[in-house]
């Protein structure tokens, strides 16, 4: 199976059955993001315990890539510290923009790594990063709506 097939399979799987696709009970942080370019909207809910992301969920309307990315994002950061999650936002952004060095632990990213395929479709990069920008806003407890156009 080549990288493109794997990319499509992972996107399809996460679109059909998104993980953590729910409002989190007792969430202490949330943020809302918009990608006007494609019409994707997404809300991230986080319940923290000290510096740890104890539970995370999201709700989204939009294209397959934005939903799949939100799903993979929640799976990846749940149980991690806020600092680790912030670092992953950077990794992901570089990955989909094609600015990540292959050697820099992309293999350890699991399902996240397949999103490198997005770099071949520049118009979809914002769909893929929406969930991550919104996560960052939630972690920073910012109130304004995040937009990928910013
Ligand atoms: Zn989209």
What does this structure look like?
This protein has 150 residues and is α+β, with helices and mostly antiparallel strands. It has a single domain (3-140), classed as Sufe protein. Chain: A (Alpha-Beta Complex), CATH 3.90.1010.10. It contains 4 helices and 4 strands. The chain has helices at 3-16, 64-77, 82-96, 125-139; strands at 29-35, 40-49, 52-61, 146-147. A 4-stranded mixed beta sheet has the order 3-2-1-4, covered by helices on one side. Strand 1 and strand 2 (40-49) form a beta hairpin. The protein is globular, with a radius of gyration of 14 Å.
Q: How would the blueprint of this fold be written?
A:
Blueprint: H1 3-16, E1 29-35, E2 40-49, E3 52-61, H2 64-77, H3 82-96, H4 125-139, E4 146-147
Parallel strand pairs: 1-4
Antiparallel strand pairs: 1-2, 2-3
Helix pairs in contact: 1-2, 2-4, 3-4
Bound molecules: zinc ion (ZN).
At a glance:
The protein is of the alpha+beta class and 150 residues long.
Q: In sequence order, what are the helices and strands, one letter per element?
A: HEEEHHHE
Low-confidence stretches: none
**Approximate shape:** globular
CATH topology: Sufe protein. Chain: A
Attribute tags:
four-stranded mixed β-sheet, globular, binds zinc ion, 19% strand, 39% helix, Sufe protein. Chain: A, 150 residues
